[in-house]
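Known limitations

Structure tokens in this collection are predictions and should be treated as such. Users comparing against experimental data should check residue numbering before alignment. To illustrate the layout, the record for FUSC family protein is reproduced below. The input appears on top and the generated tokens appear beneath it.
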Amino acid sequence: MGTRLSDHVKERLSTFGLMAPSIAQCAVGAALAWVVAIELLGHPSPFFAPISVLVCVGVGFGQRLRRVSELVVGVSLGVGVGDLLVAWIGSGPWQIALVVALAMTTAMLLNSGALFVAQAGSSAVLVATLVPGEGAGGLDRMADALTGGVIGIAAVALLPASPFALAAKHLSGVLDALSTVLEQAAEAIEKRDADLAAEALEQARTTQAAVEEFEAALETSKEIALISPLHWRRRARLARYETAAVPVDLALRNARVLSRRTLASLGEASPPPAALAEAMREVSEAALLLQLELAAGREPTLARQALLAVAARERPDGLGFSAHVIIAQLRSVVVDLLQATGMTNEDAAAALTPLDEPSGQSTGS
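Generated tokens:
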């Protein structure tokens, strides 16, 4: 129990360290947007300005530039529809329902983005509920939203999180998951343990979330590197993560098939040989080596060499059907990871030792 709590605390602290720049961006940007809207624009209660900073920057992952555009246009649409209708039909419960419905319907027809539609609806509510003459005008609210969005982007550019730390942390999660699945499957083969194989399969089925988190983090990292002058000269380092993104996803998909077939193979008369487990472990170690080399900002040559050594190995003799399928999937994982190191699909496939596949066997590549 104590170990689990300690690990959870470490994970939370690690996440805080990664998100701390975003928190600072939100705090500083919100205060600055409020001051700018009051002092420079002369708006008495510019609530949209700091809110826009929070929506734009946030503390998660996503496309900030798109969020800014959706925020400003959504606010403009909601304010425009709301002002027109309230001036015509007045304010009240049924007027609020009508204004919100029309604003959100119009937004949905123009752009189905959740933020865009939500901003249109919330802006329409504000217009319909604020007493005329006491609240800010529609143009003032649009100016506040734009001010907050611009300051949010400036905060991201001038107080940036490290795009490489974001990408490295989340690719590490993907490659750790891949390594764990291969290691568990290898142990199941060595011990002839179907329960271990079932655990490996269960672990493999949960890995897609890590891939999706990495993809979102990579998009955020690319955006930070694009808008922050502090990282313009280091974009080539981030390109290695872009190269690895699709291949590591494919590698995990092939690992899922491998773990499922490993479980099936342990119920056959000819279970997979221990040599196959050894090859799985070598690929598992190569995945971790790839993780370390990318995090260090180096060309992943050592990981590539390790994978090429596995690719050149002869397959064992006297294998059952499931073992043949496992080898095919492992070869596909090797090809995927070689592509993640920067090799082309053709060169990676050519590095494999030729073999005659049994009828109906699929490599998954």
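For this record: The longest helix spans residues 2-39. The radius of gyration is 27 Å. Please report discrepancies through the issue tracker.
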